[in-house]
Task: structure prediction
Amino acid sequence: MRNSTRFQTVLVPLTAVWLVAASLPAGAAEALRAVERNYVTAPPAPARQTAAEVDAKSAGCVSCHEATDAASMHTSPGVRLGCTDCHGGDASVVAASANDAAARDRAHVLPTYPDAWHFPHSANPERTYTLLNKESPEFVRFINPSDFRVVRESCGACHAEIIEASVRSMHATGAMLWGG
Result:
């Protein structure tokens, strides 16, 4: 009798957990619904351009992103890059106000799975690597131009040698993990 009581003590809670788990979606990505999008792929960032070209590629962006970000990640004044050189998007869209959602959606590259990226704030969700594998390269570039999946387009004109060395390093391939 004692063994059957012990068995029931373990089996009943485990069965309840299994039934609850079986009723839930297997994963968050499976529960997501894709939205049909026609992406316009931004051209690769150029190695050289004029100040006027840089301004044109940032005009709409700075109508909202006023002082929140640096004009460029490059501190050297010899490097001239506009916002869309790295991130893509449409810099010709100028917001009428800071809360112009329609302009924001026209200017930004929108995700294929918008429910996964919808938050009450503008921060991206944590640990997005698997989710980004399902997204378009245009959206990956918009979120993170240095992502190995798109870095050749956003940074390759000037940094091709560094990119090629990085994507083959043990940090990117996991060779050290399996070799260790």
Remarks:
- The mean pLDDT is 80.
- The CA atoms of residues 156 and 163 lie 7 Å apart.
- The first helix runs from residue 2 to 23.
